[in-house]
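Example record for the data management plan.
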Amino acid sequence: MRAALVIAGRDLRALFRSPLAWLLLAGASFVTAWVFLWFVQSFMAAVPHLPPGQRNTGVTDLVVSPTFIWVALVLVVLTPLLAMRLLAEERRSGTLRLLRSAPVSATAIVLGKFLALMALLWLTVAIAAAMPLSLELGTSLDFGRLGVGVLALALLAAAFGAISLFISSLTRQPLLAAVASFGAILLLWIINLATSGAAASGFGWLAFQAHLNTLLRGLVDTRDLAYFVILTLLFLGLSIWRLDAERLEG
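Corresponding structural encoding:
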């Protein structure tokens, strides 16, 4: 675990030295803030038409949950761009070969790079979560739903990160890794829309959106939590397998 933390620290410093990471974080924060303020304005316009009992609870439905859906869409774009260089760039520059030859396991390499990526993605989630807290000054938030929403975004970011990291391990071209990761994440986002009937039910379980929407409604189902955890562990395991296979090939 110590080796993984060392690698995570090194990669995190490298990411923050890159202007791309700062631009992406700034862009994600700007989009989130703009969407949040737009939903707040819509809520203020709707308040006079809401029953008195729903004026406080409605802020979670009309502002927080829609904002978090937009944050999830931001993560769809942000994650592949942040993850594309983690393994692909190291393979292209030759530093991955040196890292594999060091007395460091493939598990430590993958976990270190995953933790570095998560630090940035969870920072984005934390910034997004801080915005609705300002509404507590003038209304009452449902902190239970807010907490579940933050958990959902954190798990979603972990799944996105694991998928993107695995695809980055397959190529030496960062741009190709970004495009392929975006395509894979988008496919899992909309896969339930491509079928109907009984097939739609099966593919619906594979879709990110169905599990995310359930959690954003404040309904904590272990099947939804297990979905994100299994997907994350699956792709982390595939990344470890890929690096081990390369090490055996020499």
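Summary line stored alongside the record: The CA atoms of residues 80 and 183 lie 9 Å apart.
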